[in-house]
Amino acid sequence: MFRPPSLLLLLLVAGPLTLLLQRGPGSGPLVAADDPTEDEEGIDDSVVEDEDDEAEIEEDDTTDIMEDEKEEEEEEEDSTFGEPKASPSADTVILFVRGDDFPANNIVKFLVGFTNKGNEEFVVESLDASFRYPQDYQFYIQNFTALQLNTLVPSQRQATFEYSFIPAEPMGGRPFGLVINLNYKDANGNIFRDAVFNQTVTITEREDGLDGETIFLYMFLTGLGLLVVVGIHQLLESRKRRRPSSKVEMGTSTHNNVDMSWIPQETLNQINKTSPRRSPRKRAKRTVGSDE
After folding, report:
1. Residue 182 and residue 92 in contact, taking contact as beta carbons nearer than 8 Å
2. Residue 263: predicted pLDDT
3. What is the pTM of this model?
4. Among 118, 124, 201, 228, which is least packed, fewest CB within 10 Å?
5. What is the pLDDT of residue 102?
6. In sequence order, what are the residues at sequence separation of 6 or more whose Cβ sits closer than 8 angstroms to the Cβ of residue 192?
7. Cα–Cα distances in angstroms (integers) from residue 125 to residues 80, 159, 216, in the given order
8. Spatial distance between the Cα atoms of 261 and 256, rounded to a whole number of angstroms
9. Residue burial 136-169, b: 16+ Cβ < 10 Å; e: rest
């Protein structure tokens, strides 16, 4: 028999096993490569943390830059599309004729003074007023008609304008924001708006005079009183009609029981002549004879 091939296979299998057993666990470069030390693990963790911090700082910087750009864009939009403001070359002043009293359903009158202290002319176009919601002035509660002025105010000159409005009656007793604007433009066509008055005021309720409800109440009470008087009168009249009328019998009267000493004699003679005493039967017969 030929055996060398089997021995060759046995040597090929046993050779690597003996080499592994001689080295043992953890005694070779392979084991050192698979199991890193604690120092190497700490270094790797610190590197990872530094990278995370740098990424967070970069994100914060980008967000701050984006917010700054947004704010700048909003400011540009406000300056471009915002409401017109007052001109530095003009001054305004307001005076309420009746003070700071704003009665409901009553005329409120005020005067607005405009001073052109610049070198150019101004054209005052209109004057408007409105009541706003006190918590948010964007909401209109009552908007009054704008007064068209179209008045030219030369340089270094003044002008005074009068305006009046009537607060609605249901608004009495509550606070509202009162906004009064004066609109004007210069010779170049630049439009300006000056908020002459922009404060919260309280609408007072009217106490003087008679309103419709009070007049109606007085008329109702007057009518009710008349009905009561008429009812009492009718009740008394009905009771009088129900009572039987008492008959009074008149008998023959004599002068025997009457003291007639104080009457003059002449008067007694005249009484006896004008009314002679007759019996009822004789008077009846005479009456029948006269009828016949």
Report:
1. yes
2. 78
3. 0.47
4. 228
5. 92
6. 84, 85, 86, 87, 90, 122, 183, 184, 185, 186
7. 22, 13, 46
8. 12
9. eeeeeebebeebebeeebeeeeebebebebebee
**Over residues 136-140, mean pLDDT:** 92
Residue length of the chain? 292
Angstrom distance (rounded) from CA 122 to CA 128 = 18
Q: Which of 15-24, 39-48, 105-114, 254-263 shows the highest mean pLDDT? A: 105-114
Q: Which helix (H) or strand (E) holds 274?
A: helix 265-274
Q: Which tokens hold the place of 116? A: 């052109």
CA–CA separation, 120 vs 160, rounded Å?
Answer: 18
- In angstroms, rounded to a whole number, what is the distance separating the alpha carbons of residues 242 and 245? 9
The Cα-based distances of 255 to 93, 135, 261, 277 in angstroms read: 107, 105, 11, 11
CB-based contacts of 121: which residues, under 8 Å, 6+ apart? 152, 153, 154, 155, 186, 187
pLDDT digits (tens, 9 = 90+) for 214-241: 888 899 999 999 999 999 988 888 888 7
Helix (H) or strand (E) holding 281: helix 280-291
Identify residue 173 by its one-letter amino acid code.
G
Contact 205, 104 (CB under 8 A): yes
Least confident span in 2-6, 254-258, 260-264: 2-6
